[in-house]
Specification:
seven-stranded mixed sheet; 27 strands
Length: 344
């Protein structure tokens, strides 16, 4: 019996049903409870921001794991010619395209071997660059924190105009505390630093209170916030940005519900949507953790669009984050709770 199986059996004895969540914490820190639209600054909140300028987290190391040292390419063409060797004889055609990534076995000059004894010219090839984003281990969490999902300027007041010069700015993937929240015209504005307010649509937010509570280890995937949090009971231990399926197309939507991880595959191909404009074929996808038939947690090397809908139903993670979950957290039977705060 594997370690994955042994550990999860102990957790299943506790019970499968979710328990009621603890009451949702205020959208900010208790020391900033006096913040309002009319009072956007208080001494207590200023002191807190000086004492805790950044979230108390530890970044997960960048680690490409099972695909380290490998190259992947896609082609600016629907099909490419195959050769038996560099500058050799034509022996066939390889179906290609921007949604098909192939694992390079070796490179010789301007040629790449993509299957045994099958070579292609690199003239129309583009190399994948895996994202360097990594999630975080949560040391302490007494207020929400967030990633920026856009480059933007902050405002001096909630609902105010963006003011790069006086208030400041942030870059995509910057991580920040949320000290207080004020609603203006049905939009939440968040205080993320001294004299720095930004609207909710700029952020992916992780809240201290979980959306529900399961015993032992479980994973919450918010399709609204486009983030994932790994929990031990009520305690959040790891968080990161993800890309889930397109909410506007039912074929690719990541299904809401409570599921259990039932299949692991360290690296292997993924393909689908044959015969449609959405067809895709991907070599050596790392760290598959399937939880709902066609849906899985897995790493991606082919995009850096975390925080946005992007997948065909799976939960896309950076390779580093998928490896961390694979190595340290996810077991056979680990529950995955997919939900959307906006839909309730």
């Amino acid at each position: 019996m594997s370690f994955r199986t042994l550990v999860v059996l102990g957790s299943l004895l506790v019970g499968l049903a979710p328990q009621p969540a603890v009451p949702a914490a205020a959208q900010g820190h208790a020391n900033c409870a006096g913040i309002t639209r009319a009072t956007p600054q208080t001494p207590e909140c200023d002191a807190l921001m000086a004492a805790q300028p950044i979230p108390d987290v530890t970044p997960i190391p960048f680690d490409l794991g099972v695909i380290a040292g490998q190259d992947f390419i896609y082609f600016d063409a629907d099909a490419v010619l195959l050769y038996n060797r560099p500058d050799g004889d034509e022996i066939g055609v390889f179906p290609a395209g921007r949604s098909s990534y192939v694992n390079v076995l070796q490179i010789s000059g301007d040629w790449a071997e993509i299957r045994p004894n099958r070579w292609v010219s690199l003239a129309n090839a583009n190399f994948a660059t895996p994202s360097t984003l990594t999630g975080v281990l949560i040391n302490r969490m007494d207020m929400p924190f967030a990633w920026a999902i856009y480059d933007d300027c902050t405002s001096l007041t909630p609902g105010g105009a963006a003011n790069c010069r006086q208030s400041g700015s942030f870059s995509r993937y910057d991580l920040m505390n949320i000290y207080a929240t004020v609603t203006v015209d049905d939009l939440d504005w968040h205080l993320v630093g001294p004299g720095q307010w930004t609207v909710q649509t700029n952020l992916s937010i992780v809240h201290p209170a979980p959306p529900t509570v399961f015993p032992w280890r479980w994973i919450g995937v918010s399709t609204y916030e486009q983030n994932l949090v790994a929990y031990e009971g009520e305690r959040p231990v790891m968080a990161t940005l993800v890309s889930t399926g397109d909410m506007e197309d039912e074929r690719w939507r990541t299904d809401a519900g409570v599921w259990e991880v039932d299949l692991f595959w360290e690296a292997g191909p993924m393909e689908g949507a044959a015969g449609s404009a959405d067809v895709y074929a991907l070599d050596q996808v790392p760290y598959h953790m399937y939880f709902n038939w066609r849906e899985a947690l897995h790493g991606v090397y082919w995009h850096d669009n975390f925080g946005y809908y992007w997948s065909h139903g799976c939960v896309n993670l950076t390779v580093s984050d998928a490896k961390w979950l694979w190595d340290n957290f996810v077991l056979l039977g680990t529950r995955v709770y997919v939900y959307d705060e906006k839909l309730g």
